[in-house]
Amino acid sequence: GYRRVFEEYMRVISQRYPDIRIEGENYLPQPIYRHIASFLSVFKLVLIGLIIVGKDPFAFFGMQAPSIWQWGQENKVYACMMVFFLSNMIENQCMSTGAFEITLNDVPVWSKLESGHLPSMQQLVQILDSEMKLNVHMESLPRHRS
Predict the structure, then answer these.
(1) Residues 6+ apart with CB under 8 A from 125
(2) Which pLDDT score is estimated for 102?
(3) From 88's CA, which of 47, 54, 135, 143 has a CA 20 to 30 Å away?
């Protein structure tokens, strides 16, 4: 999803401002989210293994198995697929920041990491127009020698 948004923004910006260099990179999520994703990755494999083997982990703790566990034992293929896809969905959500940072002449113009959201295309164009006008104005000012 976010890659597509970045590519769309990149296309529009490069059409409107052909001289601007556009780069994209992935930003790592916060460490807590990386740890959650790693834990889920291992937990998923253990859970699938327990479902396949048919070992009841709840009996180890002296607990009665919930009905979903019993359903999983009766429908092992569906249960394994459900655990796999559900876990992958959560892992991907934890690892995706969707961040993108926009800089112009090494000056930050927009940060999704700081703002928490993506700018609309109109908002982004207005920001870039303002920055470009400011840069042109600053370059046209006479330079004073000391």
Answers:
(1) 12, 16
(2) 75
(3) 54
SS (H, E, C) the chain: CHHHHHHHHHHHHHHHCCCCCCCCCCCCCCHHHHHHHHHHHHHHHHHHHHHHHCCCHHHHCCCCCCHHHHHHHHCHHHHHHHHHHHHHHHHHHHHCCCCCEEEECCEEEEEHHHHCCCCCHHHHHHHHHHHHHHHHHHHHCCCCCC
Q: Are residues 36 and 75 in the same domain?
A: yes
Parent domain of 79: 31-95
Give a yes or no: residue 145 inside a domain: no
pTM above 0.85, yes or no: no
- C-alpha 11, offset from chain centre: 20
Boundary (domain end) residue, out of 75, 95, 115: 95
Under-50 pLDDT residues of the chain: none
